[in-house]
Amino acid sequence: MNVFLCMCRRTLLLTSLLFSVTPTVFAYIGMLRHHFQMGSTDDKGNKIEGLPQWIYDELKSIAALSYQFTDEGDVTEIVEDIAGE
Description:
The chain is mostly helical and 85 residues long. It contains 3 helices and 2 strands.
């Protein structure tokens, strides 16, 4: 009985998570679609094709932070790899 309740709680949690994430994903896809169809403008008001520069800058910042805070992994495995060479 406890296993069944645990599975029900987990299912409800995942369902609520799905309903909270899905609108955000579709909003982001809509934003990308808008920029590709309508285009965007630079600082001087000239129309440019593709995505605005701030999206590329944001992705670059996210990648840099992801690299900076990457886990090194298991220290024991690192030492064993170095010792094995």
